[in-house]
Amino acid sequence: MIEVRSISKFYGNKRAVENLSFTIKEGEIVGLLGLNGAGKSTILKVLGCFLVPSHGDARIGSHSVLESPDDVRRMIGYLPDTPPLYNEMPTREYLRFVARLKNVANDQVPSFVDDAMRKTNLHEVAEVRLGELSHGFRQRVGIAQALVHKPRVLILDEPINGLDPIQIVEMRDMILSLKGEHTVILSSHILSEITKTCDRILVIDRGRLVAEGSEAHLRGQVNQTLEVRIELEAFDDRVREAIRAVPGVQEIKEARKNAFYLDILCSSDIRGDIAKAVVQAGGRLLSLGKKEAELETLFLKLIKTDGAS
To answer: Which residues contact 100 (CB under 8 A, 6 or more apart)?
Structure first.
């Protein structure tokens, strides 16, 4: 569905993207992950035909961003990092306006707008002026305007930027609900969120692709251990030894004094085996999960490894 071929983009003498190539299959959700300034927005603007690459080409479907930009624009919906909203317009009126701009037939505009509002849960603010909406609703309207002409591809630049934790979960669920009907490429600098949303991750550093794959695949690339935190109602030496005997457990340490938390370093994701061992040893397991800091360590290690090569 999306094929990027040796794309480079320069602003004068400044390199934003260098010799970048990747492909995205139809129906996938793929995330561009990188620090601020890594080149993510430039890549998305090239795919959205807002920027012309200095070298290389990209194709969406059968259309080239260089040779057929108008055909590409008809196939995509684009959400920039700041949604293109007119604050004096009510939500529904604005989406009708956008639908007409995107050449939706007049008799189809109402149904197309209703469909976009349904997918983004906007009916409760249908008659509210955009300038009066919260940041979370403005982001939803931004996605709705990208969806309103029913494109095959959605390009979302930092869709969770500035959202609170509840809004982030709602945005994640909304994006996941679009899977299959749309091919989605989005950018973020938050690894813990992008791994929950995307089928694959493309790690971008200084305009270059330094790694790609699922979280598990990326972990394997850098031979990164997994750190698991468990909470127990109580534990004794029998429970500790049962955990230590699980293949892949490398180290066990108490996470907090005077509390029953253990941090366990593992060579792979063996959370199921650890839970089973605790229960069979008579322990009461209250919670088990990956430590979020470990995800960020993986991200930084991928970039550091590339920079050292």
So the answer is: 106, 109
CATH of 2-213 given 3.90.930.50, 2.40.10.10, 3.40.50.300, 3.30.980.10: 3.40.50.300
Tell me how far apart the alpha carbons of residues 180 and 26 are, in angstroms, rounded to a whole number: 8
How long is the chain?
A: 309
Phi, psi dihedral angles at 216 (to 5 degrees):
-65, -40
End-to-end CA distance of the chain: 32
82-109: pLDDT as tens digits: 889 999 999 999 999 999 999 999 999 9
Would you give the distance in Å from CA 60 to the centre of its chain? 20
Q: Are 124 and 90 in contact (CB under 8 A)?
A: no
pTM across the whole model: 0.76
The predicted pLDDT at position 267 comes to 82
**pLDDT (average), residues 8-36:** 93
The residue behind tokens 């909406």 is 133
Among residues 134, 21, 14, 19, the alpha carbon closest in space to that of 83 is found at: 134
Contact 49, 155 (CB under 8 A): no
Q: pLDDT value at position 21?
A: 96
Residue 24 forms beta bridges with which residues? Answer: 2
Maximum C-alpha span of the chain: 72
Measured distance CA(73)–CA(151) in Å, rounded: 9
- Classified as helix, coil or strand, 32 is strand
Residue ranges of the chain that CATH labels 3.30.70.100: 224-308
- Tokens at 119, concatenated: 């997918």
What band does 301 get if pLDDT is binned at 50, 70 and 90?
confident
Section 204-227 average pLDDT: 80
Question: Residues 61, 26: contact at Cβ < 8 Å?
Answer: no
Residue 301: closest CA among 228, 201, 214, 210: 210
Angle subtended at Cα 165 by Cα 161 and Cα 169, rounded to the nearest 5 degrees: 85
- Answer yes or no: is pLDDT of 235 > 90: no
